[in-house]
Design goal:
This protein is α/β, with parallel strands linked by helices. The protein has 2 domains: 4-166, Rossmann fold (3-Layer(aba) Sandwich); 183-289, 2-Layer Sandwich (GMP Synthetase, Chain A, domain 3). The protein is built from 9 helices and 9 strands. The protein has helices at residues 17-25, 69-80, 100-108, 129-142, 158-166, 183-201, 235-242, 247-264, 284-289, and strands at residues 4-11, 43-49, 52-58, 87-93, 115-121, 146-149, 211-219, 223-232, 267-276. The strands form 2 sheets. Strands 2-3-1-4-5-6 form a 6-stranded mixed β-sheet, with helices on both faces. Strands 7-8-9 form a 3-stranded mixed β-sheet.
């Protein structure tokens, strides 16, 4: 291996951050959804790319509208990655209009020795190449940074982006970045995988009002045993997650187990309980317990 390269991916919710990470890792490693805030904690993914080791920090999709404690914790979460990041990928898409949000992210990185890359996703939505040129020119008037146009859906431009990062002459051996996957980090990843399955199966306000907490994680050679809680805000949401005759919660468990066994190459046993926890997004102790606050 030539270099350890640390890459933080930030941006508005729903611009394709987790989709990009999933493509690079060639695995289902983070929650993907068109619903806001589907990645709630910084998840670390290690990838070998052409004799280099990339550490990808998939950061929360941050909403500027919500003011609850959960949203504040998510904002603080991505700021922490700046301390050990070599490359900051600022994601937007072809529909982005106001760049104040992206500029605020870049301003936070000014005091760090970080290469900033503007990545514009969803170029597959534009059939007229002249429109694409106009969008790129507009962005270039706003940012004095490298701009890359990609489509995670069609895979266009992603290899060129990764090669540009790989070919950088940065001395990328950052000393203070922790990349060891601990049991705590594993629990966070498992929580997000299960919550991603809930995002896929639930509708309306249920996904945003849902948290997953792994109470117990017992690891043996052949089996990982998980006991978890699915917390929701309202009683009717609990009924939705459980489903008629327990069908929905059973499907969530089966799909989650399938993904987790694929990722960790081990058998999983998953036990899930649904509980009502009103206003959990403003409950400091609960957010700390499930890993959203340090």
């Amino acid at each position: 291996m030539k270099n350890n390269i640390y890459i933080s991916i930030v941006g508005h919710s729903n611009t394709g951050k987790s989709s990009l990470v999933n493509f690079i890792c060639n695995n289902y490693v983070t929650t993907e959804s068109n619903k806001p805030q589907t990645t709630r904690v910084n998840l670390i993914h290690e990838v070998n790319y052409k004799e280099n080791k990339f550490f990808l920090y998939d950061t929360p999709g941050i909403s500027l509208k919500n003011t609850d404690l959960l949203s504040s914790a998510m904002k603080n979460s991505y700021i922490k990655t700046l301390e050990f990041t070599n490359f900051l990928i600022v994601m937007m898409d072809v529909n982005s209009k106001d760049f104040q949000y992206e500029q605020s992210i870049i301003n936070l990185a000014k005091d760090h020795n970080i290469v900033i890359i503007i990545v514009v996703n969803k170029i597959d939505l534009l059939k007229d190449k002249n429109e694409l040129i106009k969008i790129k020119n507009k962005i270039q008037t706003q940012f004095a940074h490298s701009i890359h146009l990609i489509s995670v859906k069609t895979k266009e431009g992603i290899t060129e982006l990764l090669d540009m990062i790989k070919n950088s002459s940065i001395n990328s051996n950052t000393n203070n970045a922790s990349t060891e996957v601990s049991v705590a980090q594993m629990k966070l990843s498992i929580q997000e995988i299960i919550r991603g399955v809930i995002n896929d199966k639930a509708h309306g306000e249920v996904p945003y009002d849902t948290a997953v907490y792994v109470e117990k994680c017992q690891i043996s050679k052949a089996l990982i045993k998980i006991e978890g809680i699915i917390a929701v805000e309202k009683l009717n949401q609990k009924k939705i997650i459980i489903g008629k005759n327990g069908l929905m919660i059973k499907e969530i468990g089966i799909k989650s187990r399938s993904w987790l066994e694929k990722i960790y190459n081990k058998k999983f046993y998953i036990s899930l309980e649904v509980v009502v926890k009103k206003n959990w997004k403003n409950n400091y102790e609960f957010l700390k317990e499930i890993g959203y606050i340090d």
